[in-house]
Amino acid sequence: QQVQGNAITPRVMKEQAGVPEFIVPLAVIAGSGVGGVLGALIVVPLVAMLRIVFLRVITPLIKAYTGASEIKGEHV
Length: 76
Hints:
76 residues, single chain, mainly alpha
């Protein structure tokens, strides 16, 4: 079970949801500290969801607000 938790699960989450391998154990520790076993089970999908929301919603808003999405040299 330790091999699964420390080696297999982080790699699967990286491939499936794009969550970096080092984030998974940290998230599980934090989730178990806050919500016990249930928190540890829920936290990894929650982190994956938050990452997707950040990449698809927050990042484009920041780029639009700052003008970072404009091509360099196009400013007048």
